[in-house]
Amino acid sequence: MQFPKDELNHRCNIEWWYFNGNLFDKNRNRYAFMNCLFKANPKKSDISLVKRIPKKEVFFSHSLFVDVSKKRKIMNLSPFSILSGDSFKREALFVNYLNSPLRYINNEIFEFDSFKYRLKNENLDLVLKARKEPLLHNGGGDFVVDGKKVFYYSLTNLDAKGVVVDGNKVIEVCGKAWMDHEWSNFIGRKKWEWFSIQLNNGIEIMIQRYNNGENNYVGIIYGNGKADFVNDLILVEGKKWKSKISGAEYPVSWKVIVKSKKIELEIKAVLSDMEVLFGSLNYWEGPVDVMGKIDGKNIRGIGFMELVGKGMKNKFDVYNYQIKQVVNSYFKIVGKKGNYLLNGLINKI
After folding, report:
1. Fold of the domain built from segment(s) 1-188
2. Which of 33, 38, 39, 220 is the most buried (most CB within 10 A)?
3. Mean pLDDT score, 20-40
4. Which long-range contacts (CB under 8 A, 24 or more apart) does 122-125 make?
5. CA distance 143 to 2
C-alpha cells in the first residue's frame, strides 16, 4: 500500500472509511461514537436502500453517538450523502459531505497531517492523532475472499480530543479512537462478527469471523509497532440480547481464545440495546469492555463490536419502525408547525 494515495477512494464495488472511539469528560463520564462513510456501486449492491439509486456510485453514511452514563444513543443513518466538489481532490484524505438536504450540517474527514485527522459530524468535533503506523492486515493489507482481493488497513491507536454535543451541552472530551479503511469488488454475504480492541498494555487487536468461520482472522499490533497475524480463533457466544423490533438475537458477551498467542479475553457490551436498522439490513454496533489474559498476564481494555447477519424475524415491524423514524426526523426539521400532520400520519401507519 502507498500512503497517502491509498487513503483516498478507489475504483471498486464497495469501500468505507470507518471510525469508532471511547471518550471521557473531565468527570470520567463515558461516551462512545461510530462514524462511517460508505461508497458503493448500486448495481452490485444488495442493500435495498442503495441498489435502486440510478448512479454509478453512491455515498451514504452511518453515525452513532452514545452517552453511556445516561444510557442514551443517537443514530444518524443516511441512504444518500452529498459530497462537496473538492472532496477526494487533495493529496491527503479530505471529504466534506451533507446528509440531509433540509438542514446544513457539514460532516468532515480531513487529514491535516500524516495520519492526523479532524472528524466532524452533528454530534462531535474531534482531532485524532495516530500513535502507530497503519496495521496492514495480513502483512500486506489484503485478504482473498471467494477468489477476490479485499484491501484493508487500520489505525489502531488514535489519540482523540475535542468536543461532543450531548443535547444542548457541548462537552470537552478525550480518549481513544480506531480507524478502518477497506475496499474491494467483493460484495459477499452479510454475516460477520468483528471486534476492535485497545488494551492497557499497549496492544491492539482486530478480530474478525466471517460467514460462520469460513474466514477467521486475528491481527495484533504491539506497543513497539510490530504485528502478528493468525487465524486460530475460537469465539464462544455468551449472553444474548433480543431486539423487540426486528426479533434478531445478538450475543452481547463473548469469550475469545487464540491459543497460538496465549490470548484469553472476555468481551462484554457496555449497553445491550445497540441495534442499527437500515432498510433490509440489521446489525449491532457499540462499545465494549475487555478483560482477560495474554501470556498469563492480566489485561483490561476497551473497544467496539459489530455483529452483522443475525436473522431479522419481524420485517414488517422493522419497516414500520423505520418509516416512523424518518417521518419524525423530517418533521423535527420542519418545526412545530408539522406536529399536527406528523401525529395524524403516524396514527395511520
Report:
1. AttH-like fold (2.40.370)
2. 33
3. 97
4. 122/63, 122/76, 122/165, 123/33, 123/63, 123/65, 123/74, 123/76, 123/164, 123/165, 123/166, 124/33, 124/35, 124/65, 124/162, 124/163, 124/164, 124/165, 125/162, 125/163
5. 17
> What pLDDT does 55 receive?
75
The sign of the CA dihedral 126, 132, 137, 141 is: positive
CA 250 to chain centre: 16
- Side-chain half-sphere exposure of 305, counting CA atoms within 13 A: 25
| Mean pLDDT value across residues 211-224 | 89
Closest CA to 137 of 266, 44, 11, 6: 6
CA–CA distance, 33 with 285 (Å, rounded to integer): 10
What DSSP character marks residue 46? -
- How many CB atoms sit inside 10 A of residue 99's CB? 23
The half-sphere exposure of 63 on its side-chain side, counting CA atoms within 13 A, is 19
pLDDT of residue 346: 47
Q: How far apart are CA 79 and CA 100, in angstroms?
A: 10
Asked whether the predicted pLDDT for residue 46 surpasses 80, the reply is no
Spatial separation of the C-alpha atoms in residues 23 and 3, rounded to whole Å: 28
DSSP annotation string for 165-204: EETTEEEEEEEEEEEEEEEES----S-EEEEEEEETTS-E
Select from 9, 64, 87, 18 the least CA-distant residue to 41: 9
pLDDT band at 336 (very low <50, low <70, confident <90, very high): very low
User: Please, where in the chain does CATH 2.40.370.10 lie?
Assistant: 1-188, 189-313
Grouping H, G, I as helix, E, B as strand and the rest as coil, residue 333 is: helix
Q: Is 53 exposed, middle or buried (0-12, 13-18, 19+ CB in 10 A)?
A: middle
Domain 189-313 = CATH 2.40.370.10: yes
Average pLDDT over residues 308-327: 66
